[in-house]
């Protein structure tokens, strides 16, 4: 994250640790550590994703907490991780594609926009948006089939409202049955709407993240300036800046700002793209051709949702998705920045 580029107004007052671009990374360490770190993040957040998915396919509005308790009561605690093995196997290559596309695009677009004479804060936001867009599109090539299979497993339970007509033993069995029923295209059901959901969502998220960081750092700078003014009025010397009037935040402060900015961006993205995510989930979970009848189209899915609960039905699962995206964004960005620092070729250059 080019925080300094997002800090035009307070760059003379806040010194942020050096940014790390694609050329500075040890690629093998970057991908190996990334697979391990993000697998842990996925495992932590998976139950929230499962609850959100159950809410989206339910015929009536049920709160996330009631849904979670119902799953544990009727199916046991392990049901909160149904389909996780399949999801994890797809997360590793999808994340690798995502990170590579993100860093390469951001580096190239960032340099190009600056060369065109665009101010650094604007160039940073543009580079982040384009990088998020390309990264999401690349990752969906791998993630959509995994998403289809894992979501079929997620909604397969003993509770009547969540049971699927087709029973799956595991991810491999689900994969085989989906291909047998729908052909290879069945694994890419909802691919178009997945792109429409995740690509703009990622573009909005990365651009919002860049802007949010600038706002937060600007707020911190104002806070320290006000604190210094009050100290000077009282005849005391300032302890928050050095002789050059430069604030040097520690690593904990930097991570806190990154986390807060990521949570803000994640909440905005969740709210904007929630209807598309609900439609996508319904399309991917419903069985395909059965008894000569094709599965519903996007239009039919929307009409069914509105019939069930009006336009608010498109926002079923918003609470868990908002929480999931905010927590995921916070943990993802802090983990991602930590990963980049661990993977940097020259650690001494980061101070």
From TrEMBL:
Residues annotated as transmembrane: 30-51
UniProt keyword Nucleotide-binding present: no
Solcar repeat ranges per the UniProt record: 26-108, 123-215, 253-342
Annotated keywords: Membrane, Transmembrane, Transmembrane helix, Transport
Chain intervals with Low complexity compositional bias: 233-245
Domain of life the protein comes from: Eukaryota
Keyword field contains Transferase: no
Subcellular localization(s) per the UniProt record: Membrane
Mode of membrane association: Multi-pass membrane protein
Pfam assignment, any one: Mito_carr
Entries under InterPro entries matching the protein: MCP_dom_sf (IPR023395), MCP_transmembrane (IPR018108)
SUPFAM superfamilies according to UniProt: Mitochondrial carrier (SSF103506)
Chain segments carrying region Disordered: 231-250
PANTHER family associated with the record: MITOCHONDRIAL SUBSTRATE CARRIER FAMILY PROTEIN J, SOLUTE CARRIER FAMILY 25 MEMBER 44-LIKE
Family of this protein: Belongs to the mitochondrial carrier (TC 2.A.29) family.
Protein name: Solute carrier family 25 member 44-like
Organism of provenance: Gossypium armourianum
Lineage: Eukaryota, Viridiplantae, Streptophyta, Embryophyta, Tracheophyta
């Amino acid at each position: 994250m080019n925080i300094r580029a997002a800090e035009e107004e307070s760059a003379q007052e806040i010194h942020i640790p050096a940014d790390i671009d694609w050329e500075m990374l040890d690629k093998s360490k970057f991908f190996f550590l990334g697979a391990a770190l993000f697998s842990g993040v996925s495992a932590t957040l998976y139950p929230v994703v499962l609850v959100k998915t159950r809410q989206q396919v339910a015929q009536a509005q049920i709160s996330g907490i009631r849904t979670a308790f119902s799953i544990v009561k009727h199916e046991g605690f392990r049901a909160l991780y149904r389909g996780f093995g399949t999801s994890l196997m797809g997360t590793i290559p999808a994340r690798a594609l995502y990170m590579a596309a993100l860093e390469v695009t951001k580096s190239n677009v960032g340099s190009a926009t600056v060369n065109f004479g665009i101010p650094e804060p604007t160039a940073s936001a543009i580079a982040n948006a384009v990088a998020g867009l390309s990264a999401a599109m690349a990752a969906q090539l791998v993630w959509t089939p995994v998403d289809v299979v894992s979501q079929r497993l997620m909604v397969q339970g003993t509770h009547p409202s969540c049971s699927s007509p087709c029973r799956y033993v595991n991810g491999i069995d689900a994969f085989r049955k989906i291909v047998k029923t729908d052909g290879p295209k069945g694994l890419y059901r909802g691919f178009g709407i997945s792109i429409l959901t995740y690509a703009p969502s990622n573009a909005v998220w990365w651009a919002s993240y860049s802007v949010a960081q600038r706002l937060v750092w600007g707020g911190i700078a104002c806070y320290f300036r006000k604190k210094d003014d009050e100290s000077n009025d009282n005849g005391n010397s300032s302890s928050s800046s050095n002789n050059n009037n430069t604030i040097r935040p520690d690593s904990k402060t930097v991570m806190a700002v990154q986390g807060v900015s990521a949570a803000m961006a994640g909440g905005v993205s969740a709210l904007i793209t929630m209807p598309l995510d609900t439609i996508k989930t319904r399309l991917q979970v419903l069985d395909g051709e059965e008894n000569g009848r094709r599965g519903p189209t996007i239009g039919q899915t929307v009409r069914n949702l509105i019939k069930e609960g009006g336009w608010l039905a498109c926002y079923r699962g918003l609470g868990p998705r908002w929480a999931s995206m905010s927590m995921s964004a916070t943990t993802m960005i802090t983990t991602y920045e930590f990963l980049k620092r661990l993977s940097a070729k020259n650690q001494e250059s980061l101070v």
